[in-house]
Specification:
The complex is a heterodimer of chains A (119) and B (226). Helix content of chain A is 26%, strand content 33%. Chain A is an alpha+beta fold. Chain A has 2 domains: 80 residues, hypothetical protein PF0899 fold (2-Layer Sandwich); 34 residues, no CATH class. In chain B, strand 7, helix 7 and strand 8 form a beta-alpha-beta unit. Helix content of chain B is 37%, strand content 21%. Chain B has a single domain, classed as P-loop containing nucleotide triphosphate hydrolases (Rossmann fold). By secondary structure, chain B is α/β, with parallel strands linked by helices. The chains are: A alpha+beta (119), B alpha/beta (226).
């Protein structure tokens, strides 16, 4: 399981951005590709652990699942895969390795509040 | 009270690893060394395969290996029998290698003195897929004893690899290995991937793989020395 080290990298990246902006982070929005090699549930669990005793303690991790999109050389169209077990166009069944989306592991946005504001 | 607001940051979580991996790849290119990483589940025969490869390449090529392991140095000891330079990276509890570990391990090696460098990842079919190590070729191994549907169970790592090697072919009959089903499974998750079927133990099929490596090295150098 490498989700804990990924979660720690997410916390690090978010803290760095928060510090530069002088804000408090209440939630982290993550784009998670189906081909990223990261398991969502394990990541959500690890995130809580990784946040402990940091400025992000109590913040939420909001994960947006990003499906795999390939380019079909026959249809000349981008197509969304229905399963990562079959790299073929869902319309015409032509095999393709031209992956256009699905490897994302990206802190996309932060929900922030100005620092010094207490609830 | 200020309202929470959303700020877009767009930060790649593995950026640090990717930056180091890119630097490594450039270092490998400049030195003219061809770098192959090996991933597989535990017990699929990576070390035996690599020991044979190191031994058989040595009359003609300068080779070395880095080997990742959770706790022991047993693999490095086995590989050292090939007389090639071998260095162990003990990862502790970490289930995969990261680019920084490779960079660290290579610090006192002169890459210009090498033709091939092999990096044996920790036995794991999940975690290594996320980490670029700067390698030129990622090899995924599976043994005939693991079941023909292994690629469908671990599509991400098979998809991220460049070449597949099916090992322990000497046991294929005993375990009723269905080659055609295995080939279809690989083709489904990684269309067009080249597959080698071999036995490191008996030597069957090894020659094809060695020839493939030699050809890769030639092509690598032709491209990098333009």
């Amino acid at each position: 399981m490498h989700e804990l080290s990924i979660a720690m990298s997410i916390v690090e990246a978010a803290m760095d951005e928060a510090q530069r902006r002088g804000v408090h982070v209440s939630a982290v929005h993550l784009r998670l590709g189906a081909l990223s090699g990261v398991v969502k549930d394990a990541l959500l669990f690890s995130y809580e652990v990784a946040c402990q005793d940091t400025a992000l303690a109590g913040s939420k991790l909001i994960v947006e699942d990003v499906p795999v999109v390939v380019f079909c050389p026959r249809c000349k169209e981008k197509r969304m895969l229905t399963s990562v077990q079959s790299f073929a166009c869902p319309e015409c069944d032509t095999p393709t390795m031209d992956v256009r989306q699905g490897k994302e592991l990206e802190v996309f946005a932060l929900e922030v509040e100005e620092q010094g504001v207490s609830e | 009270m200020s309202e929470p607001r959303l700020v877009e940051v767009r930060r790649n979580v593995l950026k640090q690893n990717d930056v180091i991996a890119r630097a490594l790849r450039e270092q490998f290119r400049a030195a003219g060394v061809f770098v192959v990483s090996l991933v597989s589940s535990p017990g699929s025969g990576k070390t035996t395969f690599l020991e044979k490869i190191l031994t058989q390449l040595q009359p003609r090529y300068r080779v070395a290996a880095l080997v990742g392991d959770l706790a022991t140095e047993n693999d490095a000891v086995r590989l050292a029998r090939s007389k090639a330079p071998v260095k162990q990276i003990t990862t502790g509890t970490l289930c995969h290698l990261e680019a920084a570990m490779v960079q660290n391990a290579l610090q006192d090696w002169d890459l210009h003195q090498l033709d091939f460098l092999f990096i044996e990842n920790v036995g794991n079919l999940v975690c290594p897929s996320s980490y670029d190590l700067g390698e030129n070729l990622r090899l995924v191994l599976m043994s005939v004893t693991e079941g023909e549907d292994k690629p469908l169970k671990y599509p991400t790592i098979f998809n991220s690899a460049d070449v597949a090697v099916i090992t322990k072919n000497e046991l294929a009959t005993a375990v009723e290995f269905d080659w055609e089903t295995a080939r279809r499974s690989i083709e489904s998750v990684r269309p067009g991937m080249q597959i080698f079927r071999l036995s490191a133990k008996t030597g069957e099929g090894m020659e094809d793989y060695l020839q493939f490596l030699a050809q890769q090295l030639t092509e690598h150098r032709a491209v990098t020395h333009i």
